[in-house]
Write a structure and sequence with these properties.
By secondary structure, this protein is mostly helical. 82% of the residues lie in helices and 0% in strands. The protein has 20 helices and no strands. Helix 4 packs across helix 20. It is a multi-pass membrane protein.
């Protein structure tokens, strides 16, 4: 009887907590709208609801278009992530090349890739679908690789004792261990896919919520803009919740204890490092050149590695080009690290608070998903109005765009504390803080560093978008200006410089990760 009552009471408490959270969000929203009345940056909930009722047909058609593109991109991007992860694990020698090329492609800024895809694919849904896929594949690939390595050594030994090969190990053991991480990646990817599809629609689509967003921004129709943002947030929240429900239904086992000997991080020889870096650079340049040649792109628009080298080194205005590019790159780099650190720390801190005080999740998670799903063209004016266009406003905008992957990954990592160890702590009546410090945070570290690596290109992307939309400085503004003036040498040079910056930053985070995880999670250090 007691069990039955508890089973009924738990969903009831959860539902009441969610309802209370929604009410708090609506009250805070209404107060903020009243405080900013007349500034044309925020509409009240009642205004948004009235607009949606009056324009439900228009919204329904736009939503159907964007949702279809986002769903297609979500499927394509996540299937690509799974395929890349399997290839990297099945052929360990190829893992570093696969991950680095995946990183390079993910680092291409949307400010530049959107127009390029529009020129390459022409009118239609192609750019929207591929931008949605590009927005999600890496955020699923990174946690999936962590999960595939999180198999207990005893399971792997059993496979080898029975004489099974690498493929059996991947399918029967590693895939099972990776399922929790896959679901975490899918939850991170859900709002990113919808946002990617909307960004694709900004570049010249004929239909969809992105098209309406551009139209209403030009018309300064604030209720319409926030109605679109609310629908985008609601869809992302529902998909996020559905994936979470599916994960709870599928994952009914306690996380296993993973025991592996601590590893020393060996110093790779200078020659070997240089050779590996040179190989990756040649591979990336060859891929860049091959895409242009195979697609037979117009040389006026599509610039290859040789064109960029000429623009930076031997062209009459090469010195001026390098100076403009260097200045813009420094202006961007100054904000990347603080914004990345702020977003990463905020996500981890909120995850810890939600573990210690679970009822708060009813308010915090919908807000977190909404902030990730609402296009920055909607939130940027509000944050700039409050915090200004300087360092504080830029860093805050970057943190808002970065913290969601950190929150989801760290929350998942905290829940991966091994069940047997938690039982031991329970038997000694250990408190939640003690369990947090000694069990949950060490279990969280692989997920934390995975989110740190995922957030590197996201932070750079965020800075470039903020520069494009709000500040008018840095590499983002330079790329937007170059595209509008058809200065394609400068545009492609800026794309290359941004990718190099992201790779270098990512390499630094990866080096720190290897040092820490070599002692706390040796199975993750390859």
């Amino acid at each position: 009887m007691t069990t039955a009552v508890g089973t009924i009471a738990q969903p009831l408490r959860s539902g009441l907590g969610s309802a209370f959270g929604v009410i708090l969000i609506l009250l805070a929203w209404d107060l903020a709208a009243r405080a900013t009345a007349g500034s044309f940056v925020l509409a009240a909930p009642a205004e948004v609801l009235n607009w949606l009722v009056a324009n439900r047909g228009l919204m329904g058609r736009a939503l159907a278009e964007t949702l279809a593109n986002a769903a297609a991109g979500f499927v394509i991007g996540n299937l690509a992530a799974i395929l890349l992860a399997v290839v990297a694990l099945a052929w360990p020698r190829a893992e570093r090349a696969v991950m680095n090329l995946a990183l390079l492609i993910f680092c291409l800024p949307l400010v530049a890739t959107g127009p390029i895809l529009r020129v390459l694919l022409g009118p239609g849904d192609g750019p929207q679908i591929w931008l949605a896929a590009l927005a999600v594949y890496y955020t699923t690939l990174v946690p999936l690789m962590v999960g595939l390595r999180a198999a207990p050594a005893s399971w792997l030994d059993l496979v080898r004792i029975y004489g099974r090969g690498r493929w059996t190990e991947i399918v029967r053991v590693r895939a099972r261990a990776a399922l929790p991480y896959l679901f975490a990646g899918l939850q991170i990817a859900a709002p990113a896919a919808f946002l990617g599809a909307m960004v694709g629609e900004f570049t010249g689509a004929e239909r969809g919520m992105g098209v309406l967003t551009v139209r209403f921004i030009r018309a300064m129709d604030v209720p319409a803009i926030w109605a679109l943002a609310c629908v985008a947030a609601l869809v992302s929240i529902l998909v996020f919740a559905a994936i979470g429900w599916l994960a709870r239904f599928v994952l009914d086992e306690k996380p296993p204890v993973i025991i592996a000997p601590a590893q020393a991080v060996g110093a790779l020889g200078v020659t070997a490092r240089m050779l590996r870096t040179l190989t990756l650079a040649v591979l990336a340049l060859a891929l860049w050149w091959a895409v242009i040649q195979i697609a037979q792109l117009n040389p006026f628009f599509a610039k290859g590695p040789d064109d960029v080298a000429r623009a930076l080194l031997s062209a009459p205005d090469a010195a001026e080009t390098r100076a403009r590019l260097g200045t813009a790159l420094v202006e961007t780099a100054v904000y990347v690290v603080p914004g990345w650190a702020a977003g990463l720390g905020l996500g981890a801190a909120i995850a810890i608070v939600l573990i210690l005080f679970p009822p708060i999740a009813a308010v915090a998670m919908p807000v977190a998903v909404a902030l990730r799903a609402i296009p920055i063209v909607t939130t940027a004016p509000l944050i700039v109005l409050v915090l200004g266009r300087g360092a504080v406003g830029t860093i805050s905008l970057v943190a808002v765009m970065v913290f969601f992957p950190s929150l989801v990954a760290c929350l998942h990592g905290l829940r991966q504390a091994p069940g047997q160890i938690m039982d031991v702590f329970d038997s000694y009546a250990a408190g939640p803080v003690s369990r947090l410090i000694h069990v949950r945070i060490p279990a969280m570290l692989p997920a934390f560093f995975a989110s740190a690596r995922m957030s590197v290109p996201a932070a750079i992307l965020a800075v470039t978008v903020v520069e494009w939309l709000a500040t008018g400085r840095g590499i983002g503004s330079l790329m937007a200006l170059s595209a509008s003036l058809s200065e394609y040498d400068m545009l492609w040079s800026a794309i290359m410089a941004t990718a190099v910056l992201a790779v270098l930053f990512h390499a630094g985070v990866s080096a720190l990760e290897r040092v820490v995880l070599a002692r706390t999670a040796p199975e993750q250090v390859g």
